[in-house]
Amino acid sequence: MSKNMKRMSFAALLIITALISIFIGRGLESGKVFAIGETFDELKVFAEVLSLVQKNYVEETKTKDLVYGAIKGMLTTLDPHTSFMPPDVYKEMQVDTKGEFGGLGIQIGIKDNQLTVIAPIEGTPADKAGIKAGDKVIKIDNTSTKDMSLIDAVGKLRGQKGTKVTITIVREGVAEPFDVVIAREIIKIQSIKHRTIEGNIGYIRVTQFQEQTGEDLKKALKKLEADKVQSIILDLRNNPGGLLSMAVEVSEQFLETGKLVVFIKDRRGEKDEFISRSTVPVKNYPMVVLVNEGSASASEIVAGALQDWGKAIVVGTQTFGKGSVQTVIPLSDGSGLRLTTARYYTPKGKSIQSTGIAPDIVIKPPVSKTAKDGKKEKPIVIREKDLERHLKNDTIKKEEPEPQIEEEAMPVIGDEKTEKEDIQLQKAIELLKTWKIFKELNPEKKAS
Fold first, then answer.
1. Whole-prediction pTM
2. Is 276 an annotated catalytic residue?
3. 279 contacts: CB under 8 Å, gap ≥ 6
């Protein structure tokens, strides 16, 4: 090896050493323990490649771009929820939890190595443009999405209000790819919607778990209580999740103080329990929780807690199955790392990772659309188990196959205009009415 090459390799090794030191230091500062399991010698190959690229690549390169690219490549070998966020993307992620950002309003994932729509968010530009679950996004503004990370895709889809983005879609049943031009808007996701239905049933829909969701739920419950509701429907359908703290805060508003809501466990088996600390007296409303394949993460925590404690009947279809915890770690240059650090479990110790929450009563919506040939279209449903490199469920024995989840149609979600068409909502209403009838038929009450 030449002296120049040796110098380049040494410089690259210094860069790697500095990055490792920063990474470990940041991990320790945040209370999380991260360890490099391989010996330092195994990083020499990376240092060699970095120095070769810097010296011999046909065009000038930036060390920062090379290192960022290497980090992204490393993380793509892990689960689909672990990712690196450059400073601009990290800043955007922090905005997300506040429930407002500029973009299209779609949830995306990687399926069969392709960028795929999990679901459009109701009422957003993507929803209005007719984007569907299962659509393959093969280009964004004429840039191929092949090998594009989720973080990069999100960065390209988002932007200032009024600007337009062109996405090229491949859709099952459509012969050729087609372009959809969508104008970005400020996506304001109202996390809690509520109303009274059928006279005395409180309907609460949680669309996402954001910083204000817990407080917004308290206000909704107070208003419904003033309306003298006698039962509650909690609708978590198509809710992609959000903040773990808000899942706990929502759950504890229906649980007595001291109840386990969820616990998480890291790879060393260390547990962290989240206990209900509600200071508001809990009303034991008869309750139904609605879920479907779009109910993920924090939604599944809430559904699992209320189901395990017998506080609600869960109705709908099998949930998404995201049972992993992501820790967001700020890095020294303003970038961030979203790292999967643990799995979470329901109070009874069930992991829903890749399997989801099984409803107490399964109600599948009918396939409402018909193809041109008169046959029913096969619905496209995407769950955690369909994503590349998803984690396995560690509570299922190896010899047992993962549960097979049948596909179902996308439901009509219960707003006032479509209430009668929403058969899952109608089933919930029917259950709560029956609940009241049986209560009124109490033989002890009659005897008195």
1. 0.71
2. no
3. 257
